[in-house]
Amino acid sequence: MTEPGEILIAGGGPVGLVTGYALAKEGIPVIVFDDNSELQEDPRAATTHPATLELLGQLGVIDQVIEQGLVSPIFRFWDRPTGEMVAEFDHALLKNDTPYPFVVQCEQFKLTHILLDLMAGLDNCDVKFSHRVSGLSVGADRVSVDVETPGGPEQFTGRYLIGCDGGRSLVRKEMDIDFEGFTWAERFLVLTTPFDFEAERGMCYRNYIADPEEWCNCFKVAGDGPPGLWRTVYPADPDVPEESLMSDEFVQNKLQNFFPLGQDYDIVHRNLYTVHQRVAATFRKGPVLLAGDACHVNNSIGGMGLNGGIQDAMNLAEKLVAVWKGDAGEDLLDRYDAQRRSYAKDYVQQQSIQNKKRLEASGAQARKRSQDELRATAADPEKARAFMLQTSMIEAMRAIED
Predict the structure, then answer these.
(1) Domain limits, the chain
(2) Cα separation of 248 and 102, whole Å?
(3) Residue 221 contacts residue 107 (beta carbons within 8 Å)
(4) Which residues contact 260 (CB under 8 A, 6 or more apart)?
């Protein structure tokens, strides 16, 4: 058993490692527990918005993220029935608002590798793989976690515990914190291919294709290097069995229906996942705090989930450093809950739901209204800048810091 001289973190994904590194580089001892035997390299979130790039700059990892990702200054909205490009937005309009007027498409597993390498050089940071947090108990000034390790059960005690253990968070459940919200009826199907949608279809690195029946997101990631990979995301019928949705015949038809090719696509990855819109009832309960998917989840349209988690991590780390060093009282951690929970509820949830509604708008009038609004916004530099301050997450993140 350890003495309560560390901060314990459940979950060694990007949010857990950002939190751990941000604390450890300030001299605070940290132990990170992760269920897996090593870092996971499954393709998941990739879009990193300007507001988050600013934080990664503060953390000292921005150059590596840019080097390992793809810089994407523009994004486009398309209409599937007509094939028309409705609007294009260029982050260059934000050049006076941020040092990073672009998005970087950098898969989250690359960020975790960057962080783990940096943490390996710190004596006060221990990342323990194959260590599953199975329970916890809370005291007045400490929290203990039960951990299943390769050598058998162990208990670790720290001053704080941060749950960065995903949407099914054991930490959140053990603390009896409600996960308020709803689950969408349809699931999302993700198909990844090396087919070059830029050269063959005139697409940029981030595309949103609207259709009242079956929308699509299409965006590029760097993968292992040139020529990169393209991910396409579609809504999936909740009544169709998973094995059918993941079959070779179905996924080929899905791509062909959107982007006729005349031959089979090379599909290097496929995934089907349930989509939630939920926010925890509190992000803090005594010495236990939550960050990332453990306390908020949303649909992926617009790429706000991982960004919100990294922003949680940096906000929380800054406050924990001040409390740990005696520069602030414990009540500062309540401010973390107030800031980040309101951000998740009032901005991320509303914006991500609106993003989905924009793509699936039905009825001629509603579709025309949505497209006319996008065209008018893109054509007016001031309106376009205001729109991108929202989509880049800059406006909302700075608002909660005021």
Answers:
(1) 7-182+276-401
(2) 36
(3) yes
(4) none
Which residue type, as a one-letter code, is found at position 227?
P
Which helix (H) or strand (E) segment holds residue 297: the answer is strand 296-297
> Could you report the per-residue pLDDT of 254-291, keeping only the tens digit for each?
999 999 998 999 999 999 999 999 999 999 999 999 99
Architecture of the domain spanning 7-182+276-401: 3-Layer(bba) Sandwich (3.50)
Element (H, E) at 146: strand 143-149
pLDDT tens-digit series, residues 153-174: 999 999 999 999 999 999 999 9
Q: Which amino acid is at 61?
A: V
Strands 47-48 and 30-33, by their bridges, are unpaired
CA 127 distance to own-chain centroid: 21
Cα gap 252→232, rounded to integer Å: 12
Token pair for 171: 């930490």
Per the confidence metrics, is the pTM higher than 0.90? yes
φ/ψ bin of 32: left (φ > 0), alpha (ψ from -120 to 50), beta (otherwise): beta
Cα 264 to chain centroid, rounded: 31
CA quadruple 312, 313, 316, 319: dihedral sign: negative
148-156, long-range: CB within 8 Å, 24+ apart, which pairs? 154/1, 155/1, 156/1, 156/2, 156/6, 156/8, 156/31, 156/33
